[in-house]
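The passage that follows is intended for readers who have already worked through the single-chain material. We present the inputs for a multi-component assembly, then the predicted structure in tokenized form, and finally a short commentary. You are encouraged to pause after the input and sketch how you expect the pieces to fit together before reading on.
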Amino acid sequence: MTAANAATAQDTFRVFGTTATLLVTEADALPAARRLADAEFAAVDLACSRFRADSELAALNAANGATVRISELFAELLGEALRAARLTDGAVDPTCGRALAELGYDRDFALVQARSAAAPAATPAASPAGPAPAVPEPADPAPASPAPGWRSVRLETGPLRASLAGGAQLDLGATAKARAADRCADAIARQLGCGVLVSLGGDIAVAGPAPAGGWRIRVTDDHAAGPDAAGQTVAITSGGLATSSTTVRAWARDGRRMHHIVDPATGEPARSCWRTVSVAAGTCTDANAASTAAIVRGAAAVAWLQRLSLPARLVRHDGSVEITAGWPHGPGHAPASPAPALGK
Amino acid sequence: MRADDAGAAMNARDDGLRRVSRLTWRIGAAGVVCSALIAAAFGHGAASSQVAARTGTTQHGQGTILIPAQPPAAAAGAGQVNSGAS
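Having made your guess, compare it with the prediction:
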């Protein structure tokens, strides 16, 4: 635990296979905030980890279509995933679990990387600080199956129950992590009465009173890069900010480069014209849904984000940038222009 | 009033009460059936709403992605934290 500056205190730790950062406006509140965060993240992990045999998600995935009773927390996380799917027209879909497993993301990501390191070399990942390769995505994908689709998920109430049709397998990774950040920030601000920023692997939620000038966030490709990584610094005072990218959570499989953002329409890693998309929204959950959907939507994402009035920063593989809906200008930014709704 | 007249009146009253009772029961049954049909027709949306209500999920914004109260502002120097992929 360190004092981040005169106004805030900071704690950084590992959770969900990534880095969590907790910032609070009152240093005395930091230990209690950490306890609340630990409890919140443990509950979310037990509810919806894809890699824990004792999670509710694992039980539902193993139920072969049978109806399973679920907790209120899991119902909330599943409800948020279905809401994200509906609001993104299915670009973010919780039924990509089988596709991810078939692509090789079938265990904790550290183990996926270890297995990948022993495999033949694949197309290199884009460097967070430098130009990306000219052909950043797999050029010759093996046949894959589309995701069954979020409408194959049934969520019932009284009692809370869920079932999966059509062989669907859930992965709530994108939305659950962001929702955990929102829940954690809300709980800390409400119970401790201080301002708080919660970052889970770069998905950021803030709540309570912000420090003077707002929370300063460096928007970049890799959340683990240094404070001076290529990108842009912005400040927010409420809501959430999330970044999705094809450059970081990537691995090799059969000589091909894979990444974790699956296009539900194909069951393959999304072939996007964007390497990184950052979105600010009213919540971290919504920011995450929009940034992930923007990667999947490709060129059409600019007009989509403009229509929704969502401030966003979209980075192409060559490093050029477009911004939308009030995102502040930075070095090398081009004004937003409606893009043709063609290739991704 | 003769005993026969009193008995007839009581029978008529009982018959009326039975009719009212049957009518009440049928209206109740019809209500239950209609409720079931409505629940079946709108079950999916209702379920989502009920889950949201029970679990404290924010109700506003169910139909759209929430925009921020303010867009991000430009800031100088390094950030307190990075937003990037993990």
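Commentary: The helical segments of chain B are 3-41, 43-55. The CA atoms of residues 39 and 46 of chain B lie 8 Å apart. How closely did your sketch match?
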